[in-house]
Amino acid sequence: MKILIIGGGMGGTILANNLARRLTPELKSGKAKITMLTASEKHMYQPGLLYLAFGRVTPDELYKDQASLLEPGITLFVDPAEEFLLDQNQVKSKSGKTFDYDVLVIATGSRPVPELIPGLAEHGQSFYTEETAIKMFRALQAFQGGRVVIAMGVPHKCPMAPLEITFMLHDYFKDRGIRDKVQLHYTYPIGRVHSLENVAKWAAPEFDRLGITVETLFNLKEVDGNAKLLKSEEGTETPFDLLISVPAHRGMEVLEKNKLGAGGWIPTNRHQLNMEGRKNVFAIGDTTNIPISKAGSTAHFEAEVLGENIAAMIKLGAPVRDYDGKVFCFIEAGKDRATYAMFDYLNPPDPRPPTKAVHWFKTAYNKLYWISARGLL
Amino acid sequence: MAEKQVIDARGSFCPGPLMELIGWIKMAQIGDEMELLSTDKGSVADVPEWIKKVGHEYQGAREEAGVWHIAVKKLK
């Protein structure tokens, strides 16, 4: 049984390690083989970018060598996929190799695409890549006062990030002694401050208490850098001095080129995680079209279910579990307080008031993540 | 005419049915019709509110076994 995993991010890495542990005897006897194709020899802890934008971590702290995270028995190629020949059960890589598979898992994640909004890349700050997070760090240091607007595109990964960055900006300016010189203005695409109703109910009064103004039903359409104006799809405008954006995302271009899904979003069964119409092709993490948070925990929990199912398919001939939509997201509510939202397809979240304890748990998890990536936590 | 795209947002708390629709309608062509499936009763109010504000066409909603089927058309 040849298992081919495309993508060495959170989902792909946890899945590969989960499978390697479950299939130790089969890997030893040669009955099973796990191969991973990935674009980078480095694995990045993406949630750390939020802290990098404030200088609270340094770039090197966000990376480990991908090879160091993988269990023995996993064959790694730093050689991204170029062509998907699903009818032939083959994937061709950039270097020209052809990989046959019995089971294919696509875990290629998602990418911010600021170019979808005219003027955004040139005039907005962001924190979704190392480069833009460092640029934002410098822009924040240079900022002496004015109107800071937070605006976002849809869809985006890490749905809690818009709230987190806003709370953290409040504390950052307060610590610098210039919060009274800064207007923080939060915009959001739907008619409340967050997609999760209970999270919005908690966050809206917090914004009010902290003097953060809010504008809902604001979908960023264009950034006029000369006039320093944001324009929305809804026909409204708002001025800015500093724009902090969460850009709209897409799946990887290679998936669109191979016609695996519009926007790079693979049509995926929400319980069994197989690609619609394919029994031996699966998708996990950001790249699915499942209407669920594009979040690390989603990829993590999906990887655990799929790992169990693929192993069961080999050992018992059938999958044994459904993914129930479980998501767990920390919400940083400033520099030293946090809460969390936990939910699934049937049960909405009910976040508690933020505490220092949960913030320290998140801070610890920022380091413990590497144990999760190895499939142990 | 393109087949009507069905956006199955049943059981979606985050990003939720309206955010799902906003993401997909951005990728659609002008003139495309879409049907959003939602188990969130709030969608019946918030989807037409947004659709009309942006200037697309709201084509109506119906409920079937606890699922709301909300039809829209991209106009711009």
Write a short abstract of this structure:
With about 375 residues, chain A is of the alpha/beta class. Chain A has eleven helices and 21 strands. Chain A has helices at about 10-20, 25-30, 50, 65-70, 120-125, 130-140, 160-175, 195-210, 255, 295-315, 355-375, and strands at about 1-5, 35-40, 40-45, 65, 75-80, 80-85, 90-95, 100, 105, 110, 145-150, 180-185, 215, 220-225, 230, 235-240, 240-245, 250, 280-285, 325-330, 340-345.
Give the assembly state of these chains.
heterodimer
Strand content of chain A: 15-25%
* CATH architecture verdict of the largest domain in chain A: 3-Layer(bba) Sandwich
**Low-pLDDT ranges of chain B:** none
Question: N-to-C terminal Cα separation of chain B, in Å?
Answer: 16 Å
Helix-strand category of chain B: alpha+beta
Query: What is the overall silhouette of chain B?
Result: globular
How many strand segments of chain B?
A: 4
SSE order of chain B, as H and E? EHEHEE
Catalogue the unreliable spans of chain A: none
Average pLDDT of chain A, rounded to a whole number, is 96
Helix content of chain A: 25-40%
In CATH, the topology of the largest domain in chain A is named: FAD/NAD(P)-binding domain
Comma- or semicolon-separated keywords:
heterodimer, A: 377 residues, alpha/beta, FAD/NAD(P)-binding domain, four-stranded parallel sheet, 11 helices, 31% helix, B: 76 residues, alpha+beta, four-stranded mixed sheet, 2 helices, 30% helix
Structure description:
The complex is a heterodimer of chains A (377) and B (76). In chain A, 31% of the residues lie in helices and 24% in strands. With 377 residues, chain A is α/β, with parallel strands linked by helices. A five-stranded parallel beta sheet of chain A has the order 5-2-1-9-19, covered by helices on one side. Chain A has a four-stranded parallel beta sheet with strand order 13-12-11-17, with helices on one face. In chain A, strands 6-7-8 form a three-stranded antiparallel beta sheet, with no helix packed on it. In chain A, β20 (327-332) and β21 (338-343) form a beta hairpin. The longest helix of chain A has 20 residues, at 296-315. Chain A is globular, with a radius of gyration of 21 Å. In chain B, β1, α1 (17-27) and β2 form a beta-alpha-beta unit. Chain B has helices at 17-27, 43-54, and strands spanning 5-8, 33-38, 57-64, 67-73. Chain B has two helices and four strands. Chain B is 30% helix and 33% strand. With 76 residues, chain B is of the alpha+beta class. Chain B has one domain (5-64). Chains A and B meet through loops of A and α1 and α2 of B.
